[in-house]
Every structure is written in C-alpha cells, then in structure tokens.
UniProtKB/TrEMBL annotation:
Residues 1-10 have a biased composition (Low complexity). SUPFAM superfamilies: Concanavalin A-like lectins/glucanases (SSF49899). This is Galectin. Residues 1-26 are annotated as: Disordered. The lineage of its organism: Eukaryota, Metazoa, Chordata, Craniata, Vertebrata. Keywords: Lectin. It holds the Pfam family Gal-bind_lectin. Residues 33-162 form the Galectin domain. One of its GO terms (molecular function) is carbohydrate binding.
Length: 170
C-alpha cells in the first residue's frame, strides 16, 4: 500500500491534540464490520467508507453508535435499501426508541456498483455525499459517538476518519 501523508495504516489511535488531523484507516473489511472512533465526532470530522453493492443486495446499514452493547444509542443510521425504488432511510435510536424515519428517494447507490460515502459532521447535522447531498440533523450529540458499524449486503474496501484542526484568525 502506498503511503499517504494524511493516513495511518495502523488504524485508530489516541487523539493527538495540536497535530491537525486524527486519521484512522482500516482496509479490507469483513461485514459485519466495526471500528472505534476515538474522541467521538466533532465539527469538521469526516468518515469515508468505500465499497461495492452486490447484485443480490437488499440493502445495508452504516451506523454511528455510542457503544457496542444491545440498545446503545445510535446517533446516525444510514440505510440504503434496494427493494423497489432505491432509497435511503436515516434515523436515530435514542434511549432504545427509534425516531421518525427520514426517507430520501433517488439514491445514487446501485446494485453491482462501487461507491464512496463521505459522512461529514457539522455543528448541526451530518452531511452525506457530495454530488447527491443529504443532511440529517443531530438528534444526539455526535461527540459521544464511539463506534462505526457496517452490516448487510455490502462489501467494504476501506474506511477512514479524519479530524481537521480548528484554525483561528491570527
């Protein structure tokens, strides 16, 4: 694997204040897949997941969780579904209760195709994608997110997170 100056092949590590980025890289994952997000999600943190959707896929889930136990709060459920018209369901699990689903039609994700998903945390919401842009407002504080999980009919190739340093005018 070629070295990239912003990515660490060792995977998640402790936060390094003052360094400007907090990269965590995982390669060649088996689904279900789980990885830690040390320090949680803060504004300007992004998580990128690359993979492909098998021709036989009914759908998959990417979840941002507070913990790895039954009933843990889910800050963001991103759930592409391929039965019928392709669509994406967004939701949160708060104190063991699912909130109101937000359904986004016209998903750019397709069976038999590769994808790159970028989840960017802002002060008010998660933003997903670039060309096909979706926004899901925070229902739980993102700084308490500790894990990312991927489940379902999908192949993931690479996942990494990056935290940008805040810059202040001089």
């Amino acid at each position: 694997m070629a070295a990239h100056p912003q990515l660490s092949p060792q995977g998640p590590g402790p936060s390094r204040p003052g360094r400007g980025t907090h990269p965590a890289v995982s390669v060649s994952q088996t689904v279900p897949y789980s990885t830690a997000i040390p320090g949680g999600l803060r504004p300007h943190t992004w998580v990128k997941v690359t993979g492909s959707v098998p021709e036989t896929s009914a759908g998959f889930r990417v979840t941002f969780l507070y913990g790895q136990y039954e009933g843990a709060n889910v800050a963001l459920l991103f759930n592409p579904r391929f039965e019928g018209a392709p669509h994406i369901v967004f939701n949160s699990l708060v104190e063991r209760k699912w909130g109101q689903e937000e359904r986004k039609e016209n998903s750019p994700l397709r069976k038999g195709k590769s994808f790159t998903l970028t989840f960017t945390t802002t002060a008010k919401a998660y933003e997903v994608g670039r060309r096909h842009h979706y926004t899901f407002r925070h229902r739980l504080p993102p700084e308490h997110v500790r894990f990312l999980e991927v489940h379902g009919d999908v192949t993931t190739h690479r996942t990494f997170t990056r935290r940008h340093r805040k810059t202040f005018p001089g």
